[in-house]
Amino acid sequence: MNDETASKPGLFGRLFGRSASPAPQTGPEQAPAEQAAAAPKRSWWQRLREGLSRSSSALSQGITDIFTKRKLDSEALEDLEDILIQADLGVATASRIAEAVGKGRYEKEISPGEVKTILADEIEKVLAPVARPIELPAGTKPFVILVVGVNGSGKTTTIGKLSAKFSAEGKKVMLAAGDTFRAAAIEQLQIWGSRIGAQVIAREQGADAAGLGFDAIESARNAGADVLIMDTAGRLQNRTELMEELAKIVRVMKKVDPEAPHAVLLVLDATVGQNALSQTEIFARTAGVTGLVMTKLDGTARGGILVAIAEKFALPVHFIGVGEGVDDLEPFAARDFARAIAGLDENT
Fold first, then answer.
1. How many beta carbons lie within 10 A of that of residue 315, not counting itself?
2. Percentage of the chain surpassing pLDDT 70?
3. Residue 301: CB partners within 8 Å, gap ≥ 6?
4. CB proximity list for 153: less than 8 A, separation 6 or greater
5. Which of 32, 55, 68, 76 has the most CB atoms lying inside 10 A of its own CB?
6. What is the rounded CA–CA span in Å between residue 7 and residue 197?
7. Based on C-alpha coordinates, what's the Rg of the chain?
């Protein structure tokens, strides 16, 4: 086993832009985070609103087209349902929103702003029960997080951002490079580990990921780590043999600690739309997913898929991502998301 440990002074400060020294040029992976660190600081609401602008613009334009100078009738509500479904909010949610808009308002004028407010309120009702943070019980050490998802969903980058957040909270973090199929994924995790001073457990490319998970838990125990986050290879949910490998990782982890992994985070790419529903169903069945992280909401006009997933599976949504910077992954807040995707201001 090849244990990579990095604890270079000042790297954590440079990650968050608190040092005048230039960051180490270790490869293209870190460029977006460093650019974000150098940019003027914006609030999370500003980044969220901007990140969801493609989704909110599509919804806002559709609502404006339907309800400007027009009395509400059954045709208008059908048109509203159509644009909500096109935004991937899901049939059940779209139907409920249309019903809420129509209640007591037939043959009356309703402004686009009123419709957006109802839209935000109904979305918040769906999302509020699933907006839950990751909790690290005091008696569980290390707290083992297994990160799963398909190719390209942003797992390794998400792990880097999560590890930076835990480290900033004073937690001792260890990382395990379980995507043993890709040398680039191993290297990328080692870069993140170097930045925050976290030990990275890695093996050669092609090594058995389940065995790595076993060793990583033992190493984390011996090192007194608070959190162990393990990456896994991206795998299509319809590839049975790959999903069986994932199930094996979980089984082997339990040989070291019957409660491990304590959290299984499914990273979903918002740009895949409806396919995210299938991913959630199959990964939940195979790996026992306990919570979700949705990335790349800034790259799609169909960010409503998060609402459809919440409606169908009721899994906790821990974090959402709207960019490449380390600050562009934040704990999920139902009200903020609902108002941003509806195109409303923060406090209106």
1. 17
2. 88
3. 54, 55, 57, 58, 87
4. 234, 267, 268, 269, 295
5. 55
6. 4
7. 22
Separation of CA 37 from chain center? 20
Q: Which two tokens stand for residue 175?
A: 């990382």
Which of 297, 148, 220, 158 shows the shortest CA–CA distance to 1? Answer: 220
Question: Token digits for 221?
Answer: 């125990």
Phi-psi region of 46 (alpha: psi -120 to 50; beta: other; left: phi over 0): alpha
- d(CA 221, CA 99) in angstroms, rounded, equals 54
Sheet containing 317-321: order of strands: 2-4, 199-202, 173-176, 227-230, 143-148, 263-269, 291-295, 317-321, 329-331
Which stretches of 231-333 are DSSP H helices? Answer: 240-256, 275-287, 305-313
DSSP tag of 52: T
Higher pLDDT, 41 or 243: 243
Could you tell me which of 345, 334, 346 has the C-alpha nearest to residue 121? 334
pLDDT in tens, 313-330: 999 999 999 988 888 899
Tokens of 180: 């043993």
Tell the residue number behind the tokens 């040092």, with chain if given: 19
Residue 17, token pair as written in the block: 């832009």
DSSP state at residue 271: G
Beta strands at 143-148 and 291-295: parallel, antiparallel or unpaired: unpaired
Q: Where are the beta strands (DSSP E) in 189-242?
A: 199-202, 227-230
- pLDDT tens-digit map of 1-42: 444 333 333 333 333 333 333 333 333 344 444 544 455 678
Copy the structure tokens of residue 279: 């991913």
CB-based contacts of 99, cutoff 8 Å, min separation 6: none
pLDDT at position 40 is 62
Q: What share of the chain is helix, strand, coil (3-state, %, to 5)?
A: 50, 15, 35
Whole-prediction pTM value?
0.85
Quick check: helix, strand or coil at residue 98? helix
